[in-house]
Amino acid sequence: MTKIDIGRYGVWRRWSQLTPELAREVEALGYGAIWVGGSPDDLDVVDRMLAATDRVVIATGIVNMWATPAEKAAASYRSLRDAHGGRFLLGVGIGHREAVQEYRAPYEVMTEYLDRLDDAGVPEDGRVLAALGPKALRLAAERTAGAHPYLVTPDHTRRARLELGDVRLLAPEQKVVLEPDPKRARAIGRPQVETPYLGLRNYTANLKRLGWTDDDIADGGSDALIDALAVHGSPAAVAAALEAHHDAGADHVAVQPLTENDADPLPGLRALAAELAL
Fold this sequence. Notes:
Number of strands: 11
Oligomer: single chain
Number of domains: 1
Order of helices and strands: EHEHEEHEHEHEHEEHHHHEHEH
Structural class: alpha/beta
CATH class: Alpha Beta
Distance between the termini: 26 Å
Number of helices: 12
CATH superfamily: Luciferase-like domain
CATH architecture: Alpha-Beta Barrel
Largest sheet: 9 strands, parallel
Radius of gyration: 17 Å
Helix content: 40-55%
């Protein structure tokens, strides 16, 4: 299986916060991918990002299997692949038990969705799976180019690499706060970790597998948990925290910059790019 080249680092950003101007700047800084977050159903935003850039890969992080039929996702994949020379990576995932009224067994839904992508012409090397637990990670290894775990730590990355094997892509997301003061950094990071993620069973179950406790998860998250899920510090300190994912076996890290009052993330991304030597 051919592994798509997305570089060592990318930028994760909600689709509603993405603009062609931001995409061009992220590409110019040397990041290898832009992850379009927030479960976009309409992939026109991906088309706009691809049209605005020349090199960077645009990936979905993720298309929700409950919200977007596989056939619709496949049609978008084929259109974007043909128009933009293979710079699109389709990330798909199961979503959350709390968000749907009829929630079948996640593994059953994922395998069925991948079957339908097969039938609709999406190759395995053109898609990745949002995978957290061992079964989902093994499915990603068997049926896709790899895994895009969200809200994880280097400890999870280490475990995920063992499940995926050596050849599959492992591209975890990591939230960062470019702020050296711990209290200010936690004030920025905690709300964006707590809501909605600490109220969603798939994420809390994964955190418990990693050794975090109910007390860590309660009341907005312990300081230690927030520090792990939204790493903070100077650009050099944050860069070192990101490199820890690579040391644990990641091929690529999707960096999600968190800023106070949703301020422009580009100053932080510029400072971080210099430390990462992109």
